[in-house]
Design goal:
CATH superfamily of the largest domain: Response regulator
Number of domains: 2
Number of helices: 7
Largest sheet: 5 strands, parallel
Shape: elongated
CATH class of the largest domain: Alpha Beta
Order of helices and strands: EHEHEHEHEHEEEEEHEEEEEH
Radius of gyration: 20 Å
Strand content: 25-35%
Length: 226
């Protein structure tokens, strides 16, 4: 299921940043983004939307007024550079409150709050990953290891490799710790596909993956528990 979201902020740079962040979240589909509140309201009158990202302070009409005009029926994540609006935002039952500037990780956490509130959390046996404009469902049992390459992560599975524009840390937070382990700043491995461990590497079938010095003791403990 894709979550149709609308992004509204009077700062074009903020809009572009959130659109970029949303593109990294497989569950999100940005159906409208912009800087004009009245254009956004017109869109909302004609199209269904699941989630709003609203700036609180905008000229002419602020985000809180938009919530009231829509009857508070659409879940909203508020964004602002001023923390004094937080109480009002939560009085309106906002899903979350993002204080600018915010990172992708903080943006992702706010989306996770929405997913949890609406019981749309990712199934425990698979990952949803966006790649080349498509959303892939990757069973955890098929994942051999994940490899970070600058801004991308490649998920190597038993039958394919999927490249996605996300951070390795975001996967480290989503994958179950009992089954997956970060062994290097650039690698996460699956216990199920681990053949054996050497002093400074783990072997996954024919692939040898380095173990970073700072991860070595934790990896040894994790491996011995298997």
């Amino acid at each position: 299921m894709r979550i149709k979201c609308l992004i509204l902020d009077d700062e074009p740079l903020a809009v572009r940043l959130m659109v970029t962040y949303a593109a990294k979240v497989p569950e999100l589909e940005v159906v409208m983004s912009g800087t004009d509140p009245r254009t956004a309201l017109s869109y909302l009158e004609r199209h269904p939307v699941d989630l709003l990202f609203l700036d609180i302070q905008m000229p002419g009409m602020n985000g809180l007024e938009i919530i009231q005009l829509t009857g508070g029926q659409i879940p909203v994540i508020l964004t602002t550079a001023y923390d004094q609006f937080a109480v009002k935002g939560f009085e309106l039952d906002a899903v979350d409150y993002l204080l600018k500037p915010f990172s992708f990780e903080r943006f992702r956490a706010s989306v996770d709050k929405y997913l949890q509130r609406h019981h749309l959390v990712e199934r425990e046996d698979a990952l949803l990953v966006r790649s080349a404009g498509q959303v892939h469902r990757i069973p955890l049992a098929h994942i051999i290891y994940l490899e970070s390459l600058r801004d991308y992560v490649i998920i190597h599975t038993t039958d394919r490799s999927v490249r996605t524009l996300q951070s390795l840390q975001s996967f480290a937070e989503r994958l179950p710790e009992s089954d997956f382990m970060r062994v290097h700043r650039s690698f996460i491995v699956s216990r199920a596909h681990l053949s054996y461990m050497e002093r400074s590497a783990v072997v996954m079938g024919e692939k040898k993956i380095p173990v970073g010095a700072t991860y070595r003791d934790a990896v040894k403990r994790w491996f011995s528990q298997g």
